[in-house]
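REQUEST FORM: STRUCTURE PREDICTION
Request ID: SP-0412
Submitted by: Lab K.M.
Chain count: 1
Length (residues): 398
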Amino acid sequence: MRKLSLLVTMAGLVLLMISASAAPLQQLTVDVGGSVTVTVDGEGPAAAVSVVLTIHEPTVVTLLATSADDTDPVIRLIDAYEREIITVDNNPSSEVAVKPSDAAFDNTMLIAGQYLVLVGRSGQAGSGEITLSVLPGKPDVIGIGSVQIIDGTLAPFERYQLPMPLEAGEVISIAAIGKAPEVDLRLTLRNPAGEIIARNDDNDTFDLFLSDLDPRLYHVTIGEAGVYTLLVRPFNDHETGSFALVIQRHGKLIGEPSTETLTGASEVRGRNTFFADFEAGEIVRLTARALNSSLDPELEVLTPDSIYVAYNDDHGTEATDLDRYDARVERLIVEQTGAYEINVNSVSGRGEFELVIERFGVFSAAVLPQIDASMGQVVVVTPAPPAIPPEATAEPSN
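STATUS: Completed
RESULT:
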């Protein structure tokens, strides 16, 4: 799994074999804003402590497991569909983590209900006493928005499609949750002309309500008002299962779009620094375009606090206005108002370049109407006929 491989150290792999169906010795409860202290006597399923976490409404949380001594905490999150969402060991990804051995992770939980947190330990050092805290988190500048959940079921060779009247400048996020560990889905959003504007198979947002297989269209900006079409389909046509469609209508962009073009020249392996004033909530696109065949530019973006927030070398898109070695940060959502540092660096070569700053508007939260779920329908796709091998050509008789 992607999340597992990123967040779990090899020292904790024995503990991670705990089954969600195993019966731990202890079972406790915790809500957002609360904490509970448990004692984990050893490694393995029998020693794990089961804590039931209740989420009452869509929110951002930080899961934090700490110890006062050398105990190395590990936490594993299981959702109501018995799917493993994430396992965390030795990952101080949150500012609240104190020690390198603290297990910490913060992100969005949009599905209200009960989750199972298995609290364990990696190794035998320490007393085994671990405190699990569920802290209220801080949403990003886009926020959670208005959340709507639509349930559906797909049989083999079926698709679910939903007409969605959307507004110009709207920012929307859409996820599809498989209600069983084996359900693997895809999402596609088409504009009123039928063109694909966003699609996803397996998400990479690390939100705490999604498994690795759940697709998500994240912070999509709608260009023109009209009726868009959302399509939910299984990864393979023959698959079946139930799903929950999670729609977030965050708000809209305000202000007129604008474009600014700056120019410069770089020496081989040179760095060229520009500064641009951005406003929190602003959505921008940055492009470094070489004006000759020698220069290979890259882009770096730093916040007013000199924290790297974006980087690109070769854009890797299908854009026809760029050379293959040009750089583009396709979408930067500004979290902090201030002067941002933009570096156009030479990966190789020298020559003139232009830095293009496109501003699409400033996000403003707004309460938008829910999508009419009654308009959704399941359609059957005719399976392709099996390939028929060509008939063998008869050899001429003598």
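NOTES: The first helix runs from residue 2 to 7.
Reviewed by: T.R.
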